[in-house]
Specification:
The structure is a single chain. Helix content is about 35%, strand content about 20%. It has about 450 residues and is α/β, with parallel strands linked by helices. The protein has three domains: about 10-100, Rossmann fold (3-Layer(aba) Sandwich); about 105-305, Mur-like, catalytic domain (UDP-N-acetylmuramoyl-L-alanine:D-glutamate ligase), CATH 3.40.1190.10; about 315-450, Mur ligase, C-terminal domain (Protein-Tyrosine Phosphatase, Chain A). Helix 5 packs across helix 12 (about 300-305) and helix 15 (about 405-415) crosses helix 16 (about 435-450). The N and C termini lie far apart (about 50 Å).
């Protein structure tokens, strides 16, 4: 960890806790800042805040009082989930107080080279693949951070120059950076998402492009060349662009050539030998291979991982086979595009489990991908909208249930051997579950109970 004095004796407000807020507050306290933590959850129900209080950090809980801005803070470190429409955040920006997210702090203290991954879909799989490939190479020492596991500021504190810090980054996090500069940046793809937070696709895209805004000619940007919108979005970058494509051969990037993965003209592995299923995962694989090669991973490490890696939990995760039915957990499919990709990965008859938070959209875009769906079990706020799309797709058997657990039983009852039972909700989980991980774990538990 770098020793820095930038925050020493500065009054800093950490707004919102969860893992990133707790870590940021503790780090800033260690760096000599005068830290105040403000979290909406009452202190009596807030063990994280209580722990910080025991460290001697000032804690204010129960609400976000606007009067806090009168205390003369020089910086706010905001939890990524708190929107910029929050009165405290709006008031801070009007006063000229910088508002950053925890990844900016991580960058400031990290001794390790950073590989940052963002995009609408595939971030977690790509991040995990890179980490696993680097780990499989005896000459490399990767660390993994971000939404995927340990928060960035915790990992950055133990990172040395011998490490490579592989970090998954959301648009929410990237809105709050100032100097953050990954040596290698990746944008997997760009589609509509989180418009309730960003307001417009343009603002969402701008947040994603922040991953390369501080890169220089010495840095690298790996990007999906199949999306012209993406290429236009980062036209300002100073980094060297390394493209990948699932649709055309690229001599200057990563793509398919004669059924094999090719990087800068070098054939690495035949696609048929890759275990990870689905066309959508090919984008993730190409991006991960490009990054791994640029970092210096061996071809043997790449082949070893790609021939064994079966996927990330909650991302088209194979769960079990019960009486001939295959169960897959794709709880991470929190938008329509992700659900489309999951449905596209299967050629067997599918019982689809879907539903969740209503963000105002319809599900007509799912209809062309439902050709193999023989039954649909719906739940949550969007149940009725999904049923409408299912009827338009010609699905004869549609049933609404109260929750994911009941959906598993209902799906099993109408299925026969050879069917795939797929949880791919096409919606966020927050109407019923605190996270997509909890939703996915409930699905897994319900599947195991069937035995």
């Amino acid at each position: 960890m770098k020793t820095i004095n930038e925050y020493k004796h500065k009054k800093i407000l950490v707004l919102g806790l969860a893992k990133s807020g707790v870590s940021a507050a503790a780090l800033l306290h260690k760096l000599g800042a005068f830290v105040t933590v403000n979290d909406k959850k009452p202190l009596g129900e807030n063990p994280e805040a209580q722990g910080l209080l025991e460290q001697g950090i000032k804690v204010i809980c129960g609400c976000h009082p606007i009067e806090l801005l009168e205390e003369g803070f020089e910086l706010i470190v905001k939890n990524p989930g708190i929107p910029y429409t929050n009165p405290l955040v709006e008031g801070a920006l009007l006063r000229g107080i910088p508002v950053i997210t925890e990844v900016e702090l991580a960058y400031k203290i990290s001794e390790a080279e950073m590989i940052g991954i963002t995009g609408t879909n595939g971030k977690t799989t790509t991040t995990t693949l890179i980490y696993e490939i680097l780990k499989a190479d005896s000459g490399l020492n990767p660390l993994i951070a971000g939404n995927i596991g340990t928060v960035a500021t915790e990992v950055a504190q133990i990172a040395t120059e011998e490490n490579q810090m592989v970090i998954e980054l959301s648009s929410f996090q990237l809105m709050g950076i100032e100097s953050f500069r990954p040596h290698i940046a990746i944008i997997t793809n760009l589609y509509d998402a989180h418009l309730d937070y960003h307001g417009t696709r343009q603002e969402y895209a701008k947040a994603k492009s922040n991953i390369t805004k501080n890169q220089t000619e010495e840095d690298l940007l790996i990007i999906n060349a199949d999306q012209q919108e993406l290429l236009d979005l980062v036209s300002f970058t100073k980094a060297k662009i390394v493209p990948f494509s699932t649709k055309k051969y690229l001599e200057n990037g990563c793509s398919l050539k004669d059924g094999s993965i090719s990087f800068l003209g070098e054939t690495l592995i035949e696609r048929k030998d890759i275990v990870l299923p689905g066309d959508h995962n090919l984008e993730n694989i190409l991006a991960a291979v490009a990054a791994s090669k640029l970092i210096g991973a061996s071809d043997d490490a790449i082949r070893k991982v790609l021939t064994t890696f079966k996927g990330v939990k909650h991302r088209t995760q194979f769960v079990d086979v019960i009486e001939g039915r295959k169960f897959y957990n794709d709880s991470k499919a929190t938008n329509i595009l992700a659900a489309q990709s999951a449905l596209n990965a299967f050629h067997e008859p599918v019982i689809l489990l879907a539903g969740g938070l209503d963000r105002g959209n319809g599900f007509e875009e799912l209809i062309p991908y439902m050709k193999n769906v023989k039954g649909m079990i719906t739940f949550g706020q969007t149940a009725e909208k999904l049923e409408k799309a299912g009827r338009e797709a010609g699905i004869e058997w549609i049933q609404r249930v109260d929750n994911v657990e009941k959906a598993v039983t209902a799906a099993f009852d109408i299925s026969i051997p050879g069917d795939v039972i797929l949880l791919s909700p096409a919606c966020a989980s927050w109407d019923q579950y605190k996270s997509f991980e909890i939703r996915g774990d409930i699905f897994i538990d319900a599947v195991h109970k069937l035995k």
